[in-house]
Amino acid sequence: MHEHATVSIKDHFVSVPDGLKLHVRILGSENAGLPVVCLPGLTRNGRDFEALAAILSSAPHRFKVISITSRGRGLSDRDPDPSRYTIPVEAMDVMAVLDHLAIDKAHFIGTSRGGLILHVLAITHLDRIASVILNDIGPVLEVDGLRQIQAYLGGRRKPQTFAEAALILKAAHGAEFPALSDEDWQGLATAIYRETEGEIVTDYDPEIGAQFRAADFNQPLADLWPQFALLAGHPVMVIRGQHSRLLSSDTVDAMGERHPGLVVVTAAGQGHAPLLDLEDLPGQIAGFLSRAI
Question: 108 and 132 in contact (C-beta within 8 Å)?
Fold first, then answer.
């Protein structure tokens, strides 16, 4: 556990161009300097970053930390047209939020799909990016990891309590995440699930999971090396889960060859995608952000 002073927490619901409202949480809004914008994964939400945000926004770091929950996840509106659950649309949503908050440039942390969104922003809004932290994601996605995600989306039994939810998650993913304590699994359960109308449910639009499960990963996947190359002049860190099946060590090596200044961190005892508040990860992230200013 990390001790941190109380910091301000402000929740906003920001309208994007097609009228949906996205949940945005800001910690340390009074802190000066470029903010740190956090983008979660496929079916995840801003709660994934709460512990890290509390650390980064407190002394001695004092960053303003902004977590954006994509459409259809968490407290953000669900899209009546599921075909708009795409990375380009979600990238435009990020820019709409930053424009609303009058943020011209920021540091970015992208977990999994959040990191793919950052590859799109490298094409469309490179001038808005100060630095990038990619959490277990890169220009090449391993099919084995994608199929693993397909398998567990919608495949878990429905928990009756958050305690049971934690046990379900540990049973499914414990082999890849030996670093997590029982308390960590409980925290993960409260990030992934929410209680609604007396039921414990996964906190995302089921259409997102259905869309991903329907994807055909027997077809060759396009890589994102051209997009990654655009970040050559920017500070970039990649965090790889030691047991990740989505981001290979070979891809991380290739990223380093293309970006000589790449900072590489291994999240020991974790898979896809690492919890960023464990062990020394917050310190390494804060150090990288401080150097990137």
Answer: yes
